[in-house]
Each structure stands twice: as C-alpha cells, then as structure tokens.
Amino acid sequence: MTDLTNQTLAEARRGLRNKDFTSAELTDAFLSSIEGSNGAINAYVAVTADKARAMAKASDEKLAKGEGGALEGLPLGIKDLFATRGDHTQACSHVLDGFKPTYESTVTSNLWADGAVMLGKLNMDEFAMGSSNESSYYGNVVNPWRKTGSTQALVPGGSSGGSAAAVAASLCLGATATDTGGSIRQPAALTGTVGIKPTYGRCSRWGIIAYASSLDQAGPIAKTVEDCAILLKSMASVDPKDTTSVDLPVPDYEAAIGKSVKGLRIGIPREYRIEGMPAEVEALWQQGIAWLKEAGAEIVDISLPHTKYALPAYYIVAPAEASSNLARYDGVRYGLRVPGKDIVEMYENTRAAGFGKEVQRRILIGTYVLSAGYYDAYYLKAQKVRTLIKRDFDLAFEAGVDAILTPATPDAAFAPGEFSDPVAMYLNDIFTVTVNMAGLPGLSVPAGLSSTGLPLGLQLIGRPFGEETLFQAGAVIEKAAGRFTPARWW
C-alpha cells in the first residue's frame, strides 16, 4: 500500500478515475506514512486523520457516481498559515496557542470544493518569517535530502519548509504554501520539488494569516510542474472578501504543459551573476539556458539594474507591514495570554512570551522604519525603489521578453544553525525577493544536483498573469533535467 504515496498527483488522479484504488486506500496510505515518518521529518504540526477519512469516504461516493471534482479524493497538506475551520491554525507561533478558527480560507475552500482531502497542517517558520524553518514554535523541519554519504540533518528552506519537506518525503501529493519573499520557491529548490508563486492577486489572501499584505501570495508545492498546474487551477479565484484579488478568468494551466517553447524569448539578467556565487550554480544556469535554446527558445541578455537594491528595500517594506499586521496579537481576544498588573503589562508579557526572536526582530525593525522621523528616510524610499524594480521588469517585458531565467537560490540546502548572522540568512532570498516586490509570478523547478548530491533549482519569472508561459518553459527544463528523489533514510 505504501507505494501509493510515491505517485505524482496527476498519476494518483488517473488511478482514482480508473478505479485502481480508492481515495480511502490512498488516504490511509498517506496517514500511515505520516505516522511512521513525521517523527523524523517534523513536517506536520497537526494531523487531521478523522477529517481526512471522512473526506475520502465522501470522495469515493462521488467518484463511484462519476461526479468527482478536479481534485476529487486527492490528499493534500495545508501550511499552518491557512485558516481551516475547527483545526489547528497557529502560524507555528506560541502567540496563537490553541487557536482554531470558525471560518475557512478562500484557497482551502476552493480545494475542498474541488474534492481534495486534508491530511493535516504543515510546519513553517513562525508567521512565515524565515528561510530555513528554524523559527517555528514546533521545532525545525528536517530536509529529506542529505549530502552523499552524510547523516547530517539539513534545513528544507522556508518559510514553507513543512510543505516542501512533506512533498519531497511523499507525505502528501501536494501542499499549499505562501510566498512573501521566496517562501515557496526557495524551499522547493532546496528539496527537489516544484513550487510556483503566482502573480499578486491571482489567489485570494482571505483567511491566510498576514505577514506583509502587499507581498504575500499563496501557491502550491508539488512533485512536478504538471501537479503544480493542476493545483493552481483550483487554488486561484477572484474573491469579494479580498479586494486585491483580480477578476480575471483562471486559465487551464495544465494545457500549457508540453507546449513547444519555439519562439519564446527568454531573458537572462546580468545582475543575477552575484559575487561569490558557487560555480555549480552558474553551470546549472548555463545548462538551463542550453536546454531552452535546444527546445527552440530565443535567449536574450537583459538588464535589471535596480536588482541590487531589492533585498534591503524588501527588508524595510516587509517588516513595516509585519509590525502593523502583528499588532492585533495582544492576548485579549484569542491565543496566548500572560497576565500582568494592568493591560499594558499584559500586552507586553504576552507579546514577549508569544513571539520568537526572528518575529520580534522584524516587528522592531518595522516599527522603527515607520516611526516619526524615519518614515521618509526608510519606508518611503524603499517604496520608491520598489517602483523602480517593477519598472525594470516592465521594460524587459515591453522589449518582447516572455520569461526570465535565473537561479532559484545561491546555494544548496545547509545545516541548521549554519547562519547565526540574520543578514547572512536574508541573503538566501537574493534571487527571489525581486519577484514579490514587482508582484510577478515565479516558478522554481529542480534542474540538477550539487557536487554533494543535493538538489538545485532554476527560477522562471513571468509577465503579470503569465503563469502559463512559466509552466510551458518549466516543463521543458523538468523533462531535460529528469526527476529528483531523495534516498530514503527516514
């Protein structure tokens, strides 16, 4: 039964429709794998076994009548940032201790409406603030990948580390994730999985715990480009409850898989050749260029001159929005409450005990850059830089570029505790933050292995709402590179 869990989402969908197995059997296989493996990986912070079995049973009844939805009977993992009615929803933070919402996020509502089955809630960096999944209140997630011949634990990336690790370890068919500065694409790259951050506004943010509202966007992590295309079709929608969601038809993303890239113009930005980038990352990038060229795409050198300012601007804008969004966690209405002699001390005690170090750091940075006397010098200037970054991309697309190819991360997965300096950790997002600052779609595809046997990814950046082009080009890279799976040790 356990080999049921090694399928891709598309294969499992086909198997269910052909009646090769039932959703109940598939769901039980995953629940059994989670029970046996989660102790080693720590991907799930809550397993909703009863709910999963009930959903699977309902799916089997629909499939028997030939009435199944697009994701009927397919078991998924849900990042702990998405509100799921009556279930653990805590953004992996102590400050939301015991919180179980009475409402469902729009993205998960869409998935359940299409018949998906919920296995449980996935670990993540606290409030999505981190690049290694080390800031979770529930402990760090362990990457299923290890260096060749080594038993040293590695991080899966973050903040969607639980989502990426669960997919890589075959503990779900696919997972929801969110991306504020690279939190889908970076963990996907470090775990040999595929992840897409859609255009800002493509998926509703309603019912997703906010980090930085102008940057946050939901997307899927899955085993293949095709699986991501299937999931995004169900996740995306306009939503009257989120005024930033866009009222545009959701294309059939799956139809883009296998389409020729002949005639597509792929931009290669010179500013992404950063100092100190490992030679094997540069070599992988060149290999990706060669694959797309062989498939008929035209390669064009481009310039994105304001790229060097993206990281510092991002780490002003994101913490500023975080300090505003996280002000609501005060110990009064829900979650953790640490008593004090008066309401002010109760606030202080609750927030000091409830938030971890990284979250506290970002709240303090954000409050500082928004404070009187510093707003113009920092926040306003960062927003102006953001406009220039977006303009760089606009000019490239206006010049006829269809997509842009870059590395996804500056290196392969690293060991927990390897980055004690926060700034060094923030540099892991160097290739991904520009995409969020400009509101564009970005896809991370596994493209090769490092000299130590760890996965490395390439990133494709698209025009606004150009996800189909990304799936089209991503499938070419995936086909040329082949699939990557970790050697099982867990």
From TrEMBL:
One of its GO terms (cellular component) is glutamyl-tRNA(Gln) amidotransferase complex. One of its GO terms (molecular function) is ATP binding. It catalyses: L-glutamyl-tRNA(Gln) + L-glutamine + ATP + H2O = L-glutaminyl-tRNA(Gln) + L-glutamate + ADP + phosphate + H(+). InterPro entries: Amidase (IPR000120), Amidase_CS (IPR020556), Amidase_dom (IPR023631), AS_sf (IPR036928), GatA (IPR004412). Its EC number is 6.3.5.7. Keywords: ATP-binding, Ligase, Nucleotide-binding, Protein biosynthesis, Transferase. GO terms for biological process: translation. The keyword Nucleotide-binding applies. Residues 25-470 form the Amidase domain. The active site is at K79, S159, S183. Belongs to the amidase family. GatA subfamily. PANTHER family: GLUTAMYL-TRNA(GLN) AMIDOTRANSFERASE SUBUNIT A, TRANSAMIDASE. This is Glutamyl-tRNA(Gln) amidotransferase subunit A. It comes from Pannonibacter phragmitetus. The lineage of its organism: Bacteria, Pseudomonadati, Pseudomonadota, Alphaproteobacteria, Hyphomicrobiales.
